[in-house]
Design goal:
Uridine Diphospho-n-acetylenolpyruvylglucosamine Reductase, domain 3, 3 domains, binds flavin-adenine dinucleotide, alpha+beta, 14 strands, Enolase-like, domain 1, single chain, 9 helices
C-alpha cells in the first residue's frame, strides 16, 4: 500500500546519521506491517535496513540478533548443535499468520516493536530469556528483558525516537529443552494462545502469550506438579489480563491457557 502522507525517507548508514526524533517519524524495518494498512500519522520513514547490521552473530555467551534480522534468516541460520532450544525458532515463525513469503522481509525487531499479542517473536524471546539493547533517542542506550519490554497490546517501553538495536539470547537458555503449544480458532489462524516452556539447569519457565494482553513468564525451581502450575497461573495472571478480540474470548483463552500449560508441563516433566 502507498503511504500517501510520507514526504521524506531517511537512509542512515550509521547511528550518527539517524535524524533527530520528531512527530510523524516511523522506523522502517521489513515494512510488512507499515505497508499493510494506511498510516495517516506517518510523514517520515527512517529505513533501518541501510544501517546494514549483521543479522546473526554467535558469541560464546549466546546469540545476538540484529533487530533487522529477518524471520527467514532466523529460521535458516546454521547454529551450534548444543543450542537445542533453537528448535523453537521455526515453530514460532510458523505460528504467525504471516507466511514464509512475509518472513523474507519481516524482522524480529519489527515484530517485537509492534507488540501484538500474537507476536510469536515475543513468545520466542521471552521463552529464551532474551534481552534487548535499545538505542535511546537522547543518544544513550539501555537493556531491557523482553518480558518487561511489552507492557500491553500494542504497547512497549520504547519512548519516542527509541529504537531496538539488537536482541541477545543467552547460551544457558539456548541449551534448554523446550516445548511450544498454539491454539487458534482456525488451523492457520491468528493465535488465541501461544505458550512456550523451557527446562534447563536453572529450572522450568513457562511463557504465556497471545491469550493475555502482555507476556507472562512463570518460573519454578523445577518442573512443578499439575496443581502447583495451575495455582501459579491463577495467582500470576488475573482474569482481567486475558484478552477478548476477534481471535478469542477471554474466558476461552483462560481455559485453553491452562490446558496448553499442562500439556507443556507433561512434555517437559
Ligand atoms: C498477512 C500478514 C500476517 C501477519 N501475521 C502476524 C502475526 O500473526 N503476528 C504478528 O505479530 N504480526 C503479524 N503480521 C505483522 C508483521 O508482518 C510482523 O509483526 C512483522 O514481524 C513486523 O516486522 P517488520 O520488519 O515488517 O516491521 P515494520 O512493518 O517495518 O514495522 C512495524 C512497526 O515496528 C516499528 N519498528 C520496526 N523495527 C523497529 C526497531 N528496530 N525499533 C523500533 N521500532 C521498530 C515500526 O516503526 C512500525 O511501527 C502480519 C502481517 C501480514 C501482512
Amino acid at each position: 500500500m502507498d503511504l500517501s502522507f510520507v514526504t521524506e525517507l531517511s537512509a542512515p548508514r550509521s547511528r550518527d546519521d539517524l535524524p533527530a526524533p520528531e512527530p510523524g517519524t516511523a522506523y522502517l524495518a521489513g515494512g510488512t506491517w507499515l505497508y499493510s494498512e494506511p498510516q495517516p500519522t506517518v510523514t517520515r520513514l527512517v529505513d533501518l535496513t541501510t544501517l546494514d547490521w549483521p543479522a546473526i552473530t554467535v558469541h560464546d555467551d549466546g546469540l545476538e540478533l540484529a533487530a533487522t534480522c529477518t524471520i527467514e534468516n532466523l529460521c535458516n541460520a546454521p547454529l551450534p548443535a548444543e543450542w537445542t532450544a533453537t528448535n523453537l525458532f521455526r515453530p514460532c515463525a510458523e505460528s504467525l499468520v504471516a507466511s514464509w513469503k512475509i518472513w523474507h522481509t519481516a524482522t524480529v525487531g519489527g515484530n517485537l516493536a509492534l507488540a501484538l499479542p500474537a507476536g510469536a517473536m515475543i513468545t520466542l524471546c521471552c521463552a529464551l530469556d532474551a534481552e534487548l539493547l535499545i538505542w535511546t533517542a537522547d543518544g544513550g542506550e539501555r537493556r531491557v528483558p523482553v518480558n518487561r519490554f511489552v507492557t500491553g497490546a500494542g504497547r512497549t517501553v520504547l519512548g519516542d525516537g527509541d529504537l531496538i538495536r539488537s536482541i541477545h539470547l543467552p547460551a544457558a537458555a539456548l541449551r534448554g529443552r523446550t516445548s511450544l503449544r498454539k491454539i487458534a480458532y482456525s488451523p492457520l489462524g491468528r493465535s488465541g494462545a501461544l505458550l512456550a516452556g523451557r527446562v534447563d539447569a536453572d529450572g522450568f519457565a513457562l511463557t504465556v502469550t497471545a491469550s493475555t494482553v502482555r507476556p507472562f513468564v512463570l518460573r519454578f525451581p523445577a518442573v512443578p506438579g499439575s496443581d502447583a502450575l495451575s495455582e501459579s497461573l491463577s495467582e500470576r495472571i488475573s482474569p482481567d489480563d486475558y484478552l477478548t478480540d476477534a481471535h478469542g474470548a477471554a474466558d476461552w483463552r483462560r481455559h485453553v491457557t491452562g490446558v496448553l500449560a499442562e500439556e507443556i508441563r507433561r512434555e517437559l516433566e
